[in-house]
What we know:
Elements: E1 5-7, H1 27-52, H2 62-80, H3 85-100, H4 108-117, H5 120-131, H6 140-154, H7 158-162, H8 180-211, H9 214-244, H10 249-272, H11 282-290, H12 298-306, E2 312-318, E3 321-324, E4 330-333, E5 340-347, E6 350-358, H13 365-434, H14 439-463, H15 466-471, H16 473-482, E7 488-492, H17 501-522, E8 527-534, E9 537-544, H18 555-566, E10 570-574, E11 581-588
Helix pairs in contact: 1-2, 2-3, 2-10, 3-4, 3-5, 5-6, 5-9, 6-8, 8-9, 9-10, 11-13, 13-14, 16-17, 17-18
Amino acid sequence: MRSGHEVGDPGRAQASPARLRPGSGSLRPAIALIGALGAVAAGVEVALLIESGFEPAWFLPAFPLTGAVYLAAGLLAWQRRPSNRIGLLIVAAGFIWLGAGLADTAVPALTATGLILATVPLAIVVHLLLAFPSGRLRGETSTIAVAGGYLVCTLLQAPVYLFNQGPSGPTTVLQIADRHDLGVIGFWVQTLAGTAVVVATAVILLSRLRRAEQGRRRVLAPLYLYGIFALLFVPVSANVVRNWFPEEALTLAVAQLAVLAVVPLAFVAAVLRGGFARTGELEELGAWLAAEEGRPPLQAALREALGDPSLGLLFWVADPPGYVDGDGATVVPALEDPERTLVEVANGGQRVGAIVYDATVVADRQLVVDAARVIALALDHDRLTAELLASREGLRESRARLVAATDSERRRIARDLHDGLQTRLVLLALLAGRAREDETLIAELGSGLQQAIAELRELVQGVVPAALTERGLYAAAEELSDRMPIPVVLDFDSPREPLPSGVETAGYFVVSEALSNTVKHARAEELRLSIGRRNGHLRIEIADDGVGGARAGGGGLSGLADRLDAFEGRLFVDSPPGRGTRIVAELPCG
């Protein structure tokens, strides 16, 4: 196998997959029904406000319209990401906005409801900020901050409507005493407690922002900053207007509603952008697995269903035991980051792989466990492919090592023969030439030694030619061409760049085998040999004008293909009968 590498964020560059259908069929009617109920509630509220004679009349739709914005945004987020609670929270905020708008109606019970809910939308903004992106609160600190927000906006809101806040303050249907002193005390207690909640929320969000990855930070920062701005704008602007510009109360109300109406739009944009909490119901994933055509890759489908663009799939192989990726390369899951989590996938009780995902994006581990059950069979099928690739990769590396060892041994034998036995025989020949006792014997000895030297030279040439070891592939190919009984036209690169020894040896045997086949079978009158580098590959082309009919899997060409395959090279043979033969070999040499 290839050397292992870590997978910390396997979502690296990949073609955009075909998207799964957002939302399940069973959810759409429920979303349509909730939308219809919200529209009816907003319409009834507008009618009640008109009936109450509220002035100015143009301000009447302000609260219902703000509630409608929250409802529409929440329903959109809920439909696109059904298992994410952000959309549901925004929908709840929409109905609370409609409830808060009832404070200006003429029906006492409805007015009381509006007074009680008046500031609860601010608590929901805190909840949304701390629950983003999954819709679930993470950690005890966030839970306490959200609980504090609801406490401030409900229990500490009571003095505002139970006691008059000043001699000129409005009288409410829930007022139990004309104690403006208690009303003022309650107001400042609520203000200070609310400020503490906002500060705690800001500290938590800044801490998360500091730990977030750069890409995610670009999405989180605008959302967090705007949310904090909205939370601070409402109480601060109210105090400013109350104390210095009381005549601008209506303008303040419009500005506050406008600022808060943008909040759900910012959340929906963040949910749909950047892959945050893009969860989908698992039956959609099952429907994708059942489809026979148009299916995206399994990993892409799982990323889309669970909403984590960094999610990675690993495959378990038994020999040697460990995880591999889709290409069969050994993988070591990098889980040093506490936010990266691994869930094993089993099929029939046997481990077949794992899902590595970001726990801050998919907060519900059970959702991933359920997805693992859904994809187990498909993952096992893909695992067999990955295991085959891993085996082929291991076989290729073993074959490459064998070829390299064989070539190295050939070179060693050639060197030893050339530097040892051949040299010794040459010295014997010189010694025999100086002998003077028996000229006939000396002549025979000298002749025999010369013949042995010639045979040895042929042997050395057959193992690894001296031209190849001393001067490289181009010179060895020229030497082979010079021995050919037919004309050979050479076309070599200039300059002739050096090549790795293994590539040179493989290339030499390609040339040698191709030229030999041409002499034996082609009945050619001319041959063309081209050698050069092309796009990081050594390219060798041998073409003749012979009878053709050669086969890539026949005779010595099959052995050449195996040798080239060990170096991840390729062999092409084009040999139509009667039209000559063209052999092209390519070897990576970058």
